[in-house]
Design goal:
Length: 194
């Protein structure tokens, strides 16, 4: 499989596991993997900033906070790293031998694919807002589908249900851990009185 990014994108949608194996087989340098992760984070950040500009919120929210590059970009990068760790560990507990470096590559490619879905959602938000909600739901399904297949390909696991359960458990563990750390650091908003 070779060719422009569009060909790889189409192949990703048709056969995500074959695409994942092909990406891993390219054996790209670690520096390229880090650059791909950073590019994915930047594109996601730009998409979020545009979404806030197109549809500004009257009250500050987590989305407006994430649209601030000084806060949002580090959060995007850490999210990609955490997701790569979850993909690595989720496969390892199922007996897989996938490496973090390959997980980082696959998660970065997944985030780049999702940036395209985010761009479609932004266009729909301007042209036909109800369609934007449908694209958002379809993007979530696409994300989960690709994540399961990429993880299965990375670790050589055939049972997709087991992979899904391991990923869900990993996500829950990360959310709990982040909530605990945020509470310790005082980043969780305190409830206000009546």
């Amino acid at each position: 499989m070779a060719g422009p990014a569009a060909t790889i994108l189409i192949q990703t949608l048709r056969d995500p596991q074959a695409t994942a194996r092909w990406l891993i087989a390219q054996d790209v340098p670690m520096s390229v993997r880090w650059m791909a992760a950073l590019l994915a984070a930047i594109l996601s950040m730009i998409g979020l900033m545009l979404a806030v500009l197109i549809s500004p919120e009257t009250e500050p929210s987590i989305f407006t906070a994430l649209a601030d590059p000084w806060f949002g970009l580090p959060v995007q990068v850490v999210s990609i790293l955490l997701l790569s760790v979850v993909v690595t560990v989720a496969g390892r507990v199922q007996g897989g031998q996938g490496r973090f470096a390959d997980a980082l590559l696959l998660v970065s490619w997944l985030e780049l694919v999702m940036a395209i879905a985010q761009a479609l959602q932004l266009v729909a938000l301007v042209i036909l807002p109800p369609l934007s909600a449908l694209i958002s739901m379809a993007s979530l399904v696409l994300f989960l589908w690709l994540m399961v297949h990429f993880t299965a390909a990375l670790h050589g696991i055939a049972a997709l249900g087991r992979v899904l359960l391991a990923l869900v458990a990993g996500f829950v563990a990360v959310v709990v851990l982040v909530a605990i750390v945020a509470g310790i650091l005082g980043l969780v908003p305190q409830p206000t009185g009546p």
